[in-house]
């Protein structure tokens, strides 16, 4: 399934992983909102955790068609995601993301905190006020 990516942390424009992974490989990057998730601070990067009523801000990134297969594999490695691996930090899931510009919902890949990580964050993690990672980083 070919979907855009919703990025909310170090892959956003201006953040450290954007140029390393996305520059020159995208067709479009546009602001979006993921509803039903809370953003938590992590060790140098954030985690989106499913939680009704909350919202996470980020960008919808549409990859160039020729770049998509390689980009998907690289982002899975970056996020340490292996399908079915119980040691995953993140799980890649298809979710509806709302385009900020026009309010349309778009199905996109989102890396959400894996269940064990999410449980730890819900118990003792620090939520990011307003769901915007840029408010945390210098």
Automatic annotation (TrEMBL):
Signal peptide: none
Domain Gamma-glutamylcyclotransferase AIG2-like: 5-134
InterPro entries, per database record: AIG2-like_dom (IPR009288), GGCT-like (IPR013024), GGCT-like_sf (IPR036568)
Pfam families assigned to the protein according to its UniProt record, in alphabetical order: GGACT
Organism superkingdom: Bacteria
SUPFAM superfamilies: Gamma-glutamyl cyclotransferase-like
Name of the featured protein: Gamma-glutamylcyclotransferase AIG2-like domain-containing protein
Organism name: Streptomyces griseoflavus Tu4000
């Amino acid at each position: 399934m070919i979907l855009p990516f919703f990025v909310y942390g170090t892959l956003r424009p201006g953040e450290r992983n954007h140029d390393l992974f996305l520059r020159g490989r995208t067709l479009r990057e546009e602001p979006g909102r993921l509803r039903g998730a809370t953003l938590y601070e992590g060790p140098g990067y954030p985690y989106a955790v499913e939680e009704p009523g909350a919202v996470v801000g980020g960008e919808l990134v549409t990859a160039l068609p020729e770049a998509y297969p390689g980009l998907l594999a690289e982002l899975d490695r970056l996020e340490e995601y292996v399908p079915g691996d119980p040691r995953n930090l993140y799980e890649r899931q298809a979710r509806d993301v709302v385009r900020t510009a026009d309010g349309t919902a778009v199905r996109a890949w989102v890396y959400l905190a894996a269940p064990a990580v999410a449980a730890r964050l819900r118990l003792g993690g620090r939520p990011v006020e307003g769901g915007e990672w840029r408010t945390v980083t210098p």
